[in-house]
Amino acid sequence: MKNNIIFMLAMAMLLPVVICAQTTTVLVNSEWACSDNWGNGYQQVAVSNLTNLAEGDKLQIEVTAKSKTAEWPQVALKYSDKNWNWKEFAEADSHSVGLWGVTTFPYTAEFTFTKSMVDSLLAGQALIISGSGYTACKATLIHYSPLSTGTKWQGEKVMPTDWGAWLTLPASKFADAKIGWTLRLMASDVASGAQAQLSSAAWKCLANKSFGGKYVDFELTQDILMELQQNGVNINGCGYTLTAVKLFDPSATVKYTTTLNITQPDWTWSDTKPTIGLKINNPSTSAVRLPVQVDVTTDKGEIVKSYNQSVDVNAFEETGVNISFSDIRNPGIYRFTTYVNGEQVSYTRPEDKAYTWTTLNIAYKPTEISSSSDAQSDFKAYWDDAKAQLKSVDMNAQLELVQEGTYRNLYRLTLNSIPNGTSGNPVQIRGYYAEVKAEGTYPCIIYYMGYDSDHTSTLWHPGADDRQNYNELIISPRGQSFGNRIPYKDDNFYCNTSAAASDDNIANGKWFTYHFGDKDSYYYRGAYMDQVRGIDFVCSRNKVDKKNIFATGSSQGGAFTIVAAALADGRINAIAPAIQFMGDFPDYFKVGTWPVSEAKNAAKWKGMTEAEMYTFLSYYDTKNFASMITAPTMSSIGLQDNVCPAHTNLAPFNLLTCEKKLYINKNLVHETPSNNSWSNPNNSERDWTALCNDWWTEHMQTTGIETIDSSEDTAHYSACYNVCGQKVGFFENGQLKDVNYKGIIIINGKKLINK
User: What is the span of the domain harbouring residue 167?
Assistant: First the structure.
């Protein structure tokens, strides 16, 4: 029979939890009898035989019979102190097993040693096995030995955020290691985004992992083991304090199974307190008592509480427990890490085994998270000056036809934008533009691009006929994306790979730190203006319906979307930023991973204090643009995103006063939901592209119904328009031709419903 606790299940996972190996020691192996009056018959075990005794260990007494005359037959434990005086264990500890209800023998009376029992015993002389009215023949101690076959190092070694420290262990430490064993790095003061790395003696990276709790485990592959046993290892990383290095054989342990249950389907709580459930399955032949610990912190790493309790699991059974985070009181993103018997419980998201976490994020009243603006007094003036400079630069739009479609033409586009400073030559930016061929005006979607961290990847651009009734623009910021690919890459001075870190650009393709600290020439002053230039361009096109310009982008593109809407002077009708970058830097650098070290190193080179760094970054912080946005805004965030964390996405969103809609995706990292991914199989309602399409349709501004002049010869041929005045095909000899539009169609001023 299973011990069941009912859970409100949303998501679940089944994963092995490795616990300690068990060893048995027979303490007594001869018959003894305790009299009815507790006066005679007991066994005494010297403390010298209990040196490895630990909390959770068990003592099993094999009882062969009980007295028929004893009123309360029972097995009891006592201890003798340093002076050999018999003592009772603390009242709260379980130190007796009653036999009055036992009818079948032999019977095993089992005790589990608590911490106070262990402390009392080890401070005294002996364990006393006493009681009344029973006969026994054996006493066995079950000890749960530590996982590690050896602690290879112990101490405190701070690994700062700049990767400037390391610990070297010689090859001799790993002489006993084998392929498949685990090297565990124990840590304290683990910061958000902390990483641990194993490096060879020549500083080649052997393995790298992010912390999800108190430790990280590295499996010893053949290559790693060979390096360790021949040359030793350098342990480095960032954002943690190394406290111990342990080596153990995971196959020599008992494996339990734990199911983790999140009780709220979207992992977001508003009215009730967050609760998680655990189900622990015991496949072994012995009952166990397992300590369960759940550590809860804010996303900044601030400790909220550690929830602790012990769970008894019978042999071959499953037991469940609910843990409510009652100490969470303030709106925020919270992180929890679960341990069963000291082992981190991992979570693998369904249908996508590549993503496994030991620390999970949950949200409590996320739309109430407050991140107030830190805009400087000259914030608006600073950007007004940048916009004025942009207006003074001739756009000089150049279009090169690359694909002629049936409905649209696709062009390669170059534009002039502001210089890298308040003076100098304009910077040329690039993109692709798809324009509808038919007569009339049509809506336009502007796509803003993510951070160009991989200059070799193939970049997306719209196809000629991807959207028949929309114009589309994808624009690159200076130096990135289309400007960072052949044939333009050789002329890209933003990627000066010969630049030293102390040089003014601090670049090497690191856009975020280009001219860091210089407001006049910083990369994102120009990059933000590049996105406004894209708006200038589409507004210059006769085929673009100026009332229906939309913008979207993800990551860096999400930041561009927010900023462009703020600086567009009302020319964007609706926006959809997702998993956006550049938000709430003072908190971002506490909850995120990148570009914290790059920014702090750049500030160090510039001689900037931390306060000066944040003042500088405030000019480019998306939250400080929120008050300037009037366009309806739809946003998507990944709750498990550590690149652009949920907290930093919520900072500008919660400050918006316009119409807005938010999607929090519980299981997503730095990504948006897609019909082609595990997160959204066969569900177009949550597909981000589908959501955006619905958002554009919902906020489409009508421009009236365009009709054909009756004086024209329309008997055989007439153009067809939708209710927004956009041409959608033609009507010939009583038949609709090339009309893929469903809904109301206007032909010569008459309404036709095309189903």
Answer: 150-251
